[in-house]
Amino acid sequence: MNIDKQDQPRQPLLPNTAASRLGILGGGQLGRMFAHAAQAMGYQVAVLEPEAACPAAQVAEHHVQLAYDDEQGLALLSRLAPRVTTEFENVPADSLKLLATGGFVAPAAACVSIAQDRLAEKHFFTRCGLHTGVYPAPHWGIASEEDLKSVNDDLLPGILKTTRMGYDGKGQVRVRNREELHTAYALMQGHCVLEKMLPLAYEVSVLVARGVDGEAVVYPIAENVHRDGILFTTLAPSPNVSPEVARQAQKAALDIIAELGYVGVLCIEFFVLTDGSIVVNEMAPRPHNSGHYTMDACDTSQFEQQVRALAQLPLGSVRQHSAAAMLNILGDVWFDGERQREPAWDRILAIPGAHLHLYGKAEARRARKMGHVTFVASSMELARANLRSACVILGIATPESA
Ligand code: ATP
Ligand code: MG
Question: Which positions does UniProt annotate for ATP binding (predicted)?
């Protein structure tokens, strides 16, 4: 099974020529960091994004300010850039298909479509489980009252999730029993997936990348902690993971990316359960927040890797040269109660091994991702201690987990 049936041109797009332009759908922070990596290597970048002062358009050479499904916008992007990628998974699959008629698109629409639909994704992971031995959580698709009635008792307590558009813990409700399930479904309606609530020990993600020639690389395992549904910290390499679990998760990630016939960077989230077994949760068809540490701690960042895959250049080394602890910076740190303030970046940058990344968002809002800081060090203990010092400076409750 190779999901990506795209007839791909097989030729590197070298940097530093008149044609060396890479296109991106979406103008958020992931697009911005992709643009930085592309420009550092001698490419120009064109962004399709309806919003005016978005993070990526501030740095890209070309900004097509139209909707992601605007045919003229897509045609213009295609003319500007012979190779196009996406920075978010909810881009209309039809837009990727249309772009693929005029140039090379990675990842392909067929791969992105699977990641857009939780149920399709779980079916895909279940099929892959035959090779990987790693399966998704027990689940049941619910699209009608009939489906609701046929839910097995064994799936409760569980989590009811919308099949599409869920992110940062939005679009999901925890349900303890049938009554709560009925109430939650009545509110959510549409297509949902009920997942059995599993006893998680911790959560990890595995970043993989694959070139058009089928060559693939896998980064070290990163361990993620969420707060209020949003990624809070990533520690890499994961301090909790055993060599056996690391090997299993990395092998599963490589099998999954090969099964997809995927080109580009893919991030796969796994749960490690209290009994030590692992479960595959979901995948993001793009660089991921939990992979930001690669910018400062690995030979090749996830964004450079995406540039290399899109340009059909050899993939870079995934060696991690320093322990890394990444702290997400949300808009909340601009608030002291009701009063707005500017965070003390000078004090953050006085911490050894601190790398500050801010995304150029003018307005700080609570829960809005504004940037991140990665602390690199010779040991994880040191990286974590530095992350904790930063939390104190920024007024963020110190994480027990980090
Ligand atoms: P994001 O896009 O931010 O990764 P999401 O909204 O797509 O999140 P999930 O990653 O599926 O949703 O779930 C969010 C969090 O809820 C997980 O990180 C995990 O902590 C918890 N969770 C999800 N599914 C389960 C489960 N089956 N059992 C236990 N906990 C779960
Ligand atoms: Mg998730």
Answer: 118, 161, 166-172, 195-198, 203, 226, 281-282
First to last CA, the chain: 40
11, two tokens: 């030729």
Q: How confident is the model at residue 159 (pLDDT cuts 50, 70, 90)?
A: very high
Q: What is the CA radius of gyration of the chain?
A: 21
Kindly give the distance from the C-alpha atom of residue 111 to the centroid of ligand 1, in angstroms, as a whole number: 21
pTM of the entire structure? 0.96
Fold exhibited by the domain 21-115: Rossmann fold (3.40.50)
How far apart are the C-alpha atoms of 193 and 142, rounded to whole Å?
6
Q: What count of Cα atoms within 13 Å lies in the side-chain half-sphere of residue 40? A: 14
Q: In this structure, what DSSP letter does residue 298 have?
A: B
Q: Which CATH architecture has domain 200-394?
A: 2-Layer Sandwich (3.30)
Residue nearest to atom 23 of ligand 1 (CA): 159
Percentage above 70 pLDDT, the chain: 97
Pairing of strands 339-340, 104-105: unpaired
